[in-house]
Write a structure and sequence with these properties.
The chain is α/β, with parallel strands linked by helices. It has helices at about 45-55, 95-110, 140-155, 165-185; strands spanning about 5, 10-25, 25-35, 60-65, 75-85, 90-95, 110-115, 130-135. It has 4 helices and 8 strands; from the N terminus they run βββαβββαββαα.
Length: about 190
């Protein structure tokens, strides 16, 4: 199945900080990506996070999508549709260049932590509540592998004037090293 081309009919937010969290009682101690988004005046997302702390786990639907463009995309969107404990729809915009390792981590962990903050806040400094959101990536995985390879190649290898074979080998090594980090367990 091809990944969806996105025409967002909901607010979308940019990431102000990303990182990862490891907890032995969650995800068998593996690293799980964590995002801090600036929601501006959308206080309902803060309310959603507070509600998750006091109620049973909620229901949500997540969908990866690409911008509707004829060129190589520069961004990827993750659409979040919450059904319980409150109904709310929004999306998170990921820059491929800046967040490719985080996107890959979310796809491999099938989850991420979401926190609300402001520009300059860091995952490690956040004292606010966060929620863990499960993410299904099966429809997006094949397209992601292509995007990830292209992005890493452009970001790390293009300026080195390598042969195509050397470029391929170096890109593959870089991706494998990034993925080794996501496999670490506590």
């Amino acid at each position: 199945m091809k990944p969806r081309k996105v025409k967002l009919n909901c607010p979308f937010f940019r990431i102000v900080s990303d990182g990862s969290i490891s907890n032995v009682s969650v995800g068998e101690g593996r690293l799980i990506p964590s995002l801090v988004i600036d929601t501006g005046n959308h206080f309902e997302i803060n309310e959603l996070i507070k509600l998750h702390k006091d109620t049973l786990p909620g229901d949500s639907i997540t969908t990866w999508g690409l911008p509707d463009t004829f060129f190589k995309p520069k961004n990827v969107f993750l659409s979040l549709n919450f059904i319980k404990p409150m109904k709310i729809d929004f999306a998170i915009e990921f820059s491929l260049v800046n967040h490719c390792a985080t996107i890959d981590g979310i796809i491999h962990a099938n989850a991420f932590y979401l926190q609300v903050g402001k520009k300059g806040d860091k995952v490690s400094e956040q004292k606010n509540d966060s929620i863990m959101i499960e993410v299904s990536s099966t429809d997006f995985r094949e397209k992601w592998e292509q995007l990830f390879f292209y992005t890493v190649k452009e970001k790390f290898c293009k300026k080195l004037n390598l042969s195509k074979k050397e470029e391929f080998e170096m890109t593959t090594k870089i991706i494998n090293k990034m993925r080794d980090a996501w496999k670490l367990r506590r």
